[in-house]
Prior knowledge:
The chain is an alpha+beta fold.
Amino acid sequence: MAILGYHVNCYIKESPRGIYIYIMSKNRKSILSVMLLIIILLAILVGLSAYEGLYPFGNKLWIRADSYTQYSIFYKYLRQQLVHNGTLFYSFKLGLGGSFFTIMGYYLMSPLSFLVVLFKDSQIMLFMTILIISKIVLSGITFYLFINKRIKLDYVYRLGLSIAYALMSFNIIYAFNVMWLDSIILIPIALMGVDHLINKGKIWLLTGTLTLLFISNFYMAYMAGIGIFIYFLVELIVLQNRVKWKSGIKFLISVILSFGLSAWLILPINYALKSGPKIPLQVGFLQRKQSIWIALSDLFSHNTQLFDGANIYCGILMLVAVIAFYFIPKIKIRIKVIVSALEICFLISYIYEYPYVMWHGFQQPTGYGFRFSFLISLMMILITGFVINIGLENVLKPLVYAVLLCSIILLTLYKKQVIDNGILIINSVMLGLLTLMILIGYIFYKNIGINIIKWLTLALIMTDSIQNMHFVISQLDSLPGYVATEKNWKENDSQNLKTALSYLKQDRTFYRTVVTPNAMLNQGMYNNFNGFSWFNTFGYQQLATTLSQFGYSTTLGNKSLAYQEGNTIVDSLLGLKYRIALMNDSMTSIGYQKVFNSGNYEVYQNKNALPIAIINDNLTINQPLEGNELQRQLLFFNKNKRSAIIRTIDNPNFTVHNVKIEQKNNGIQLSPYGKNAYIEYRIDMPANSELLTKIAVIDGVNSYGKLDFKTNQIIRNNYPNFHNEGVLSLYKSSNHKSNAFVKMRLKGNVNIAESPKFILLNGDALTENIEKLRKEAPKVIKKSENSIELQVNAKHKEPVFFSIPFDKSWKATVNGKSVLLEDNHGFMQVPVESGKSSIKLRYIPKGIKEGFLITSVTALMLILFGIKQQLEKRVSRE
């Protein structure tokens, strides 16, 4: 080999053609290796998809939870806007209205996202499946390119480590958070950029990659950026002969340039994030989060804490190699100290709350903890490559020591009952296979063992990755809310529903619509209508809080809002004009009349629905929302008129059957005994009235789903529950008096705050007050997704109230003069003087102008600098 190398080197020096042949042969080999990597990864991903019954081989989907309820819908809407040249700034399809630009900035700005235009609306599931698999494969490719430059390894080892990186637990578990995967793809290229900066003084690769990181997903870019900076510092410490301060300045310049090039997106998103309520960080510096034993258990496969623990498993070989690293004499003490310091930092971030939240932008993440764990996996894989590079003969004994220590840790965790039998067995099997591989290497490494061991290493990594993937998918399938199916997706896109929505298009006024049951919180975007419910990171939290106090559901927190059918008053105030319900879903809301049928769907029109803006001098800014949910809804009406609209029924007649009622310190406990346990109420109903109730449980989800309500008209099972814990509509009387019989059946112990309250809503009084507001309401002259023009004739100085979420990105003019929008409990409000006024509203994301200016200046500077460099090169040649 040495002689061959000598001849090649001589030939290269003497013949330019030899240089070309050598480089081309080397590139061809690299290309073939990458192609082989793609084939292996696709074979594993597609094969496992077929085995697990994942789409398109089965009904289950790669996308789950948020990916199903949010991202898939956002992609569908993005496609529609791109294909039909719609606006990307704002949308009334997003709940009561919301910024689509910020949604794009967090979820959809991966360059691959825009390939959605190549697919039909009905193929969104196919697109997202291809997107997830493509990103996993791309992460393997970029890691291969990085390690090919960074560590001198045989291509088989490079393949193995790249497969381990692509199929690490983090990628498979969070594949449904598809926007996070871009950072996994880009971080190896960024590390190449760091090496390029240190070795050649060039910043272009790092700058470009950081820019893509910031744009693709700014949130994960924050964590990836910390990892890149750590890598840069470690490289400077290791390479002591370098001029460190020059590299440091260039690194800083690269970061600044990257921010400048992505400022058009980062600034508006930053403003959007800051617009929400400020939640103080209540974490002590040394407050414990997890025990060290739980941390050690996360090092192994089959970790059942998918969303509570750190998903760092990337293969048993990587874990053993990290331990063996410290037993290898050839590795300098200084290197070991640096690596151990990094590992201690990660361990502290795991065990203590404050460093943990620091990784997450000094905010507690909502579910899905330890989002920085991909950096730990990356470090483990790099250490493994470093260990392999030292040579088989130098690492066999250290590997044996590491296997023994790893076995001791595993047995200790089992003895302490931190892990169960399943985890012990599968990891013991993988350790056994690794031990067998080490034994083969020890026996044969002087002869053919080196070739055998590299292929065995590849086989071990692939086997380990496949078994871990199978476990992760099985575990996700067992979690409530994490199994999404293509069938369910198609049901939300049925032809009958499309026909019902098409019927509404003949209405040229502004109106809002809701489809019940509320299968998707972002249903307006999914089905392309002005909706009501929403669920996304940038949900208007103040408005959600207000609507929760009015009786709507925010079970998933204040970044969500679910429609509740018992809020007839606010339905009308917020312009909810149409409800599309299944035929077996009886309508008990006052003011709704059936106007159309489409298969199993019925369309109901709310005659009391108001326009998008009304004159409001009743609900004032900062006014306390006192009373119960329905009493708060009356705050929009004149004080003297409110008592006629609703009336609480005191001491209704009821009978008890097989129910034990006990008064507790903090409420009432209802306990069923025997069969058919229920409490039945008899309510005398005046003409044209609606019967409502609200059950307030005091132990949250423990009492969810344990009550069924049945009346003469409706059946409402499993109340309260997620997305249906607000006001409940039970009965509607017609033009004559009637009796409502309400049977509350118990299916388990329920703890409630007080005895059920029943409230009567007077339909005639409601209509009278609604008509008064309608008569004085401004007239909408023109409306688009991001602009509104109205005319109003005010009797005196009073505010115009908009049923639109308050957002500082809206700009208002009254008679051509700019006015400051007011925040009225999360809604927008514009003050006007008496007389006729013209109001114009326009939405432009706050910060986008400044962001584009910064980006333009940065790009211009780079262009001028590039021209200067080219001119200098030309002069130097001459």
